[in-house]
Amino acid sequence: MEKDTVERVERDIQLIKEVIENTSKSISELSKTFILLGFLLLGASIMNSLSHLLVAIIPETLFFASALIFVLLIIAGMCIIFYKAYKTPMMGVGKQLVRIWICIIIFQIVSGILNNAILPNIFSMHSPDNWHVSTSLNYLAYAVGFLCMGVFTDFKISNLLALLYVVIGLFYILPNPLTSVKFLNTNPSFFRLTEVIDYGVSLLIPITFLLIGYYLKSKKCKVSKREFQINS
Amino acid sequence: MNFKSIPEIFQSRVRLAIISALLTGDKTFSQIKGITHAADGSLNMHLVKLEEIKFVSSKKEFVDKRPRSTYSLTQTGKTEFKEYVKLLEQILKESK
Predict the structure, then answer these.
(1) How confident is the model at residue A122 (pLDDT cuts 50, 70, 90)?
(2) How close is the nearest chain A Cα to the Cα of B20, in Å?
(3) Which pLDDT score, from 0 to 100, does residue B47 have?
(4) Fewer CB in a 10 Å sphere around the end CB: N or C, chain B?
């Protein structure tokens, strides 16, 4: 075997590895975005759950001050993520998916502000239906995001998550005893059950983001090895 | 076995880099340029060649009133590239 041939083969393999590694960073960056979002949303969910306990213990003004600081931290965190996603030289599907998720998160924030601050305080609209519709729309928006991921990538788990979030979205909007009694029924045991379901579902979102993030991270490592078996 | 037995299309490092880059997803002309560091004319020539032998397909569209070409690897290109990688491994094994 000619020495030149072997050297050239080694150079080619090295080039292929490097290009695959560099272009796979797009998926890697996508995974980082999901992991960061997951931790932020996990913090928000825990804070939301604790707030019901804290409001009874600490003074109202102190509670609202700490809640405001936390909300500002969440918004700052989101801004950092969006800025990093915008500046990162991502390519192809990865970049498009980050854009889709940014739109979904913006929709969630706008929807949250509309339903929790503007509708009740400015227009005096306190209808439970608003809460049901907005909650349902939020989960259906997640379903759209996961469906897009499933369509544009080969991450099969994403389609399953889309289905799960469609079910949750329908659960909140279709009439059923576990959601409608929250506002109408004063039975404490029913109330607790619906609360538990709400907290459980709210924790599901950050957990989903974290799982997707770590899944994408591990997926990135497998791409080159699985497809082309470059072992040298 | 020597390097001459390798298909001619894979004997260019720019073409090799283009195909490797397209393995991880579709890329625009400027993205491929950023990866390969090739000059516009040279890169265009290699892309045309890859399209001619149906290894790569392109889609041309206007984004913000500017033309944009997006390239993707065809099934033929992917299969041939897999064969090529196998060949490289074989050469390395034989050399040891």
Answers:
(1) low
(2) 6
(3) 95
(4) C
Name the strand (E) or helix (H) holding A172.
Answer: helix A156-173
User: Between B24, B88, B94, which is nearest A223 by CB?
Assistant: B24
pLDDT tens-digit readout, A136-158: 888 898 899 888 888 877 677 88
Q: Which of B20, B22, B27, B72 to mutate to test the interface with A (most CBs of A within 10 A)?
A: B20
Chain B hits for A230, Cβ within 8 Å: 85, 89
Contact flag A12-B94 (C-beta cutoff 8 Å): no
CA-based nearest distance B29→chain A, Å: 12
Is the pLDDT confidence value at A220 over 60?
Answer: no
Inter-chain residue contact A15 with B25, CB threshold 8 Å: no
Identify all chain B residues contacting A24, using CB atoms and an 8 Å cutoff: 24
ipTM of the assembly?
0.85
Higher pLDDT, B51 or B34: B51
Pairs from A169-174 (Cβ < 8 Å, separation ≥ 24) = A169/A136, A169/A137, A169/A138, A169/A139, A169/A140, A169/A143, A170/A136, A172/A132, A172/A135, A172/A136, A172/A139, A173/A132, A173/A133, A173/A136
Of A1, A22, A91, the CB nearest to B95: A1
Q: Does residue A34 carry a pLDDT above 50?
A: yes
Domains of chain B, each with CATH number or no CATH: 12-94 (1.10.10.10)
pLDDT on residue A174: 79
